[in-house]
Amino acid sequence: MSDAVHRIVVKCGGAVAADAGRLVLPLVRAGHEVCVVHGAGPQISEEMRRFGIPVQFVGGRRVTSIAGLAVVRSSLHTVNRALCAALGPAAEGLMGDEIGLLAVQQPALGLGGDPLPSRPPAGEAALADGRIPVVAPLGVGPLNVNADEAAAALAVGLEADRLLFVSDVPGVLRDGAVIDRIGVGEAGRLLDEGRFQGGIVPKLRAAVTAARSGIVSEIGGTAVVQ
Q1: Taking each helix axis from N to C terminus, what angle separates 66-87 and 20-29, rounded to the nearest 10 degrees?
Q2: pTM for this one?
């Protein structure tokens, strides 16, 4: 990346939220505008099991019931507070449904949906003021939305230059090894063929969405390019 100021969306998985300060603050210190989107997947699943709520996924995305939605919101609040604490006083915690992250409900996901490209005024104002918006992935409804897809929707809506996925997924694997880059055409074809499973699926779909809008997208060690 050049020395120019960039607008960067960083998606932090719930499993690596504690590392947010180490990952995000160097970008902020370098003068970039950084919006953080986080998940809470491990925390949500643990709490749902504790309350006896079934944990179900379709294509790597969570199926959310009415009872499950309350657990999702509570877990997201907990991770959001922890992230803001790690990032310091410049961080501003925001719940997506409260700031206008739009989404379309998908019946197969219950109270879950697909986020739409959105430019929430609160997020834009935070970036303009030099703050770090930390956004929890709930869509207007409220609807539970996949955090990877929410990050891509915000990256497109906020006209970001770069989208970074930071998680315990090392990147896109081929023959057991992380590949340096993959084109959106090949990625889309492999996804349609069902060649990937689990959490990499929504990450790669989201990266493809952002890359098609000209946003530099990286999943771990893999760049997703046009």
Answers
A1: 50
A2: 0.92
